[in-house]
Amino acid sequence: MNAKVRTIFAKELVDMLRDRRTLFATAIIPIFIYPLLTLGMAEVTQMAKAKLDRDEFPVAVLPGTQKMAEHILKIARGTPEPLKGIPPPETPAEPKPEKKAAPEKSQPDAAKKPPLPSDDDDDESDDVPLDSFQKTQFSFREMTPGEARKALSDGRIRALLILPLDFEKDIAEQTEEPTAAIEYDQAERVSQSTFSRLRTMLERYESATVKERLKEKALPAKFLHPFKLDAKNTAGAEKVGGSLFGAMLPLLFIIMLLTGALHPAIDMTAGEKERSTLETLVGSPVRPIEIIAGKFLAVATLSLANAALNVCSFAVSFALLPLPANLGFQFPWAALPLTLTLLIPLALFFSALLLMVASFAANTKEAQVFCMPVFLIPTVGMAIAMTPGIELQGPLLLTPVINIALLIKELFLFHGTAQQFAFVFISTCIYAAGMVALAARVFAREEVLFSAQGSLRLFLSRRFFKEMPTPRPGDALLAAGILFPLNFYVSLSLQKMLVADVLKPIEWPVLAALLIIPQYGLFLAAPMLVAKYLKANFKATFQWNRPCGRAIMGAALLGGASWLIAIQLLAWQSRFWPVNTSEMGVEHAFKQLAKTVAGQYFLIFLVALTPAICEEHFFRGFFQQGLGRKNKWATIILVGAVFGFFHFPVFRMPITSLLGMVMAYAAWQTRSIWPGVLMHFLHNGLSLLGPGLLHLSEEKPVAGEPLKDLPLQLFLPALALFALGLFFVSRSGAPDEKTT
């Protein structure tokens, strides 16, 4: 961060911290909202429970059945009174441990009758806790069915209990199976609670009746329960807590993160337009990229501070909440550090997005209207993430916001993997970089910043563009951010089709379409169209310069040796990173096609020549030239890392990144993409056909087992040729020129 960016960052941050509205939204709300929520919700829950225990539940019954309903209620509560000659069940004493000794034959029949099981045996099956059921105050009122249904609709009663007149008589004589019915209003919570309590009453009455019948028949309780089910919960208390909080907290954290960035982003753009201070800032000797960098860092800092305060405030509030020791769940504290880490790139993404959107507004009121749709992004994302059956895999790994919400939920359940975390974190960082680049382009357009009514059309209008030799760094990052998910979806589709049935021959037109269309469309045509739209010079952007002989020789040596070195590096990597055999399906499909001469030529064009031409034009052309030629090794490392992250499977990404750095170095030194094209072509072609030509082992890798090492008689010469190629490339370029 240079001095100008630091100055702008400090100035914007101090201005925001002096604003009471910012302090209120960023600090005061997170500090107070969670204690109020946690303590308030606990208090409200206790008050609601106490109110239900005190309130009277008016229930309608049919004429002539009120006494029967009251009698059933008393039996369910264990305090029966005789009615219609039906003997009440005995209220058992506290249960004693059952002796295993068999009873003597001389005992009387009465002694053989087992005691009735206690009511505690049925507590686990009740929807309503026993203490709440015992405190429930039912008020049975006789009404005709028509009157009862109207009263239920008007809210004068909570439910209708329909009992036949001969309900208990039929049960006692066991001649028919009578039916009891409950009608309630599902839209009313109190009516639902009444229904649960009535169902509990009837279930406990049924249990008491069954126990009495067993007692009369001198049958033990085991007659109806021949075995016991011992269900054991294997989830720890923190995992249970994660399942409770994992669906709610991601939405809350993301919304609060957005809230923390909203006001600063509006104030630093539309607010400065209203105060006429933006012209002074832009008129100072500071580049637009430095202005947006300082403002962006200030907004992101406030947004991250808001997110951190939200997480910490919730954690402290929950930790201090007086909860019973036997509650059965705990807050998953181990998930908080990773959750905060995931919120960092998301805060950068939303900060840049809000800055860009607010820049098009002429005043703060208009900016608020423009920014409100941004809040729909996490809302829709969370609605998708909370849908049952949605898992963090496939395209959802790279879908912005949704992947963050799903991964936070997985982390709360202790299900998230390191691979998922890497995909989500890195992809969100790429999206954030692209959004920052887009915001920087907005600030570079004076027509947008100083117009009374900024518009996206004005921002995208090509007639306002000035000719330039190469794209800007923001253009390069934005292009990479857009191409990355598109390439990911295409790669998944290709891999799915190729590994579906590796033994079935693949039709050439299908394979050609799956490879050629995305290659020539995404990596060749798309950057050319963007370069033309931006009025960039094609020769400078794509480095269409003629390389010298030493560059061609060095690239040939690098491409001829790199595939062997890559085999050995993969073997070393497999010793600590297990191989996933499903990732080898694409290579197996290619080898099936390479069995014929025509198939070999086709694959050379498809797998070697096409990626060499197309990918080099984007990565070592548009992307590398867009990043500029000021920071040599930073640019080379970034280009290689992005190149590797674009290539699947994941197991090969580290090695692919190293090869991408070598090709970026060759393009930098020779100022031409053609040495990289040659190296890329030779590496891919020999990786496909070389093992067969050198009679290397082509055994299918075993999952979890390390790959076989390359013979030293091949690895050492390849290493020497690779070093010689680097030497030729390093001596083939002209001295670096300073960018004007």
- Unreliably modeled segments: 82-126, 735-740
With strands numbered from the N-terminus, the spatial order across the biggest sheet is 2-1-3-4
- Individual helix count: 29
Average pLDDT, rounded to a whole number, is: 78
Instruction: Give a quick account of the main beta sheet: strands, pairing sense, barrel closure.
Output: 4 strands, mixed
N-end to C-end Cα span: 21 Å
Shape by Cα distribution: globular
Helix amount, in percent?
55-70%
Molecular structure report:
This protein is mostly helical and 740 residues long. The protein has 29 helices and 4 strands. It has a 4-stranded mixed sheet, with helices on both faces. Helix 2 packs antiparallel against helix 10, helix 12 packs antiparallel against helix 13 and helix 20 packs antiparallel against helix 25.
List the topology elements.
Elements lengths: L2 H16 L1 H35 L1 E6 L4 H12 L31 H4 L17 H6 L1 E6 L2 H10 L4 E4 L4 H7 L7 E4 L4 H28 L20 H9 L3 H27 L2 H6 L4 H33 L14 H25 L4 H8 L4 H10 L16 H11 L5 H26 L2 H5 L5 H5 L12 H27 L8 H26 L4 H5 L6 H25 L11 H9 L3 H31 L4 H14 L7 H18 L3 H20 L18 H19 L10
Parallel strand pairs: 1-2, 1-3
Antiparallel strand pairs: 3-4
Helix pairs in contact: 1-12, 2-10, 2-12, 3-8, 10-12, 10-13, 10-14, 10-16, 12-13, 12-17, 13-14, 13-16, 13-17, 15-16, 17-20, 20-21, 20-25, 21-25, 23-27, 23-28, 23-29, 25-26, 25-27, 25-28, 26-27, 27-28
